[in-house]
Design goal:
alpha/beta; 2 domains; six-stranded mixed beta sheet; four-stranded antiparallel beta sheet
């Protein structure tokens, strides 16, 4: 299967002042995503997983390495080309309220990418917005309401509609469900999977939650201190991890089975 995204030896560093060496947020990271598939990026806070997503989106400075999307090199691409590529590369952030304009009805926010990319205008654009609101499980007349009128889960549905109504090839999901209740998380994850099956879109799914990545991803890359320490199929990484860090992440994850949770607690406190 052809690769949609290929990241090779990516390094992202940030200056920390005159007397301190640069902070290596990503250090020689290499990953790839096939068309229509999901790569999960998992790790603790500070592991570099969100920086990787930012670099792919053009939000983080790349010190060295390559990011190729559909064969095109993105490192060094102009701002104008990056804006054009938002038609093909979209993002869903953790906080849906922060990514929606509170001063505009959600319909006006959803219209913007359609007009910007000359996909539709006028009545056709309005109809497409209403159609996509219904696709994500909201009524068409939600277009007239403001972000404050919706729950967190409903706002994330709106964010999903905004990302996918331009029919991108890749969506970066950066902790897209971590701020939601567990029952709402499951609904949003299943919605994303359903839309992937319909549209053939690829996801880069960034999360700290192994259970989420097992549910969503075809393959998983585990990051620690800016480095990929393990990569493989979701089943292999979750159920037969080889890296000590991955094993520690799984051991620290809460389990709904109290017997498993007690056994893990005993292992951690054993001398």
């Amino acid at each position: 299967m052809s690769k949609l995204l290929e990241v090779t030896d990516l390094t992202v560093s940030y200056r920390r002042g005159f007397r301190h060496p640069p902070l290596l947020a990503n250090d020689g990271v290499s990953i790839s995503i096939s068309r229509g598939k999901t790569l999960g990026i998992v790790g603790e806070s500070g592991s570099g997983k969100s920086t990787l997503g930012d670099a792919i989106l053009g939000f983080a400075p790349v010190s060295s390495g390559s990011i190729r999307f559909d064969g095109e090199e993105l490192v060094g691409a102009s701002a104008a080309r990056r804006r054009e590529l938002t038609k093909n590369i979209q993002v869903i952030f953790q906080n849906p309220y922060g990514s929606l304009n509170p001063a505009k009805p959600v319909g006006a926010t959803l219209l913007e990418p359609l007009v910007a990319h000359r996909i539709a205008s006028g009545a056709a654009a309005t109809a497409r917005v209403e159609e996509w609101l219904e696709v994500v499980g909201l009524p068409a007349d939600a277009a007239k309401r403001y972000p404050r009128d919706f729950s967190g889960g409903q706002r994330q549905r709106i964010a999903i509609a905004r990302a996918l109504l331009v029919e991108p090839e890749l969506v970066v999901c950066d902790e897209a469900v971590s701020a939601l209740d567990l029952s709402i998380q499951a609904q949003i994850l299943n919605l994303l999977l359903d839309l992937q099956h319909r549209l053939g879109v690829s996801y880069l799914f960034i999360t700290h939650d192994m259970a989420v990545v097992e549910h969503m991803a075809d393959r998983v890359a585990v990051m620690h201190r800016g480095v990929v320490v393990e990569e493989g199929s979701a089943r292999d990484v979750v159920h037969a991890p080889t890296a000590e860090y991955t094993q520690a992440l799984l051991a620290a994850a809460p389990s709904p089975d109290p017997r498993i949770q007690q056994a893990r607690r005993r292992e951690r406190t054993a001398p």
